[in-house]
Prior knowledge:
Blueprint: E1 2-5, H1 11-24, H2 32-40, H3 44-49, E2 54-61, E3 64-72, E4 76-82, H4 91-105, E5 110-116, H5 120-125, E6 129-138, E7 141-151
Parallel strand pairs: 4-5
Antiparallel strand pairs: 1-2, 2-3, 3-4, 5-7, 6-7
Amino acid sequence: MKIRLARDEDYAAIARLQRQTIRNINAKDYSEDQIYVWSVRTNAGRFRSNAHECKRWVAIEDDKIVGFCEHGFDCELWGLYIHKDYVGKGIGSRLLKVAEDSLKKHGCKTITLKGTVTAKEFYQKQGYTVIKKDLHPVNDKKLEIFVMAKKLF
């Protein structure tokens, strides 16, 4: 598996992967309505429009994008998504490490994120602690999330 910075031509595949992950992985923890509004707002244009506001990496295996991770420049991890067939193979941990190293280089001492119910346990295993439970607005729905943080050493 190879990890590299995302390119403009990756955004359609990234959007498909995010929709697929939400619909297959996150569906066990959220209602059908929540999954629908969350997944339909994802498209290549959305990723393209905020590319200048973040760093984004993709994990490639067999010439296919199997995961991606992104962070803003305010010490916040924006997202980490893994293809349903590659969950549990260490790809998420490797992508997260790349993002954490990048944030550390940007001078971050603590990383924050808004983790889903689905991802909470994964992040806890990576050293993140829950700061608070919250509701994240997605269109007219509210998704239960966890604000989490990790101190970098």
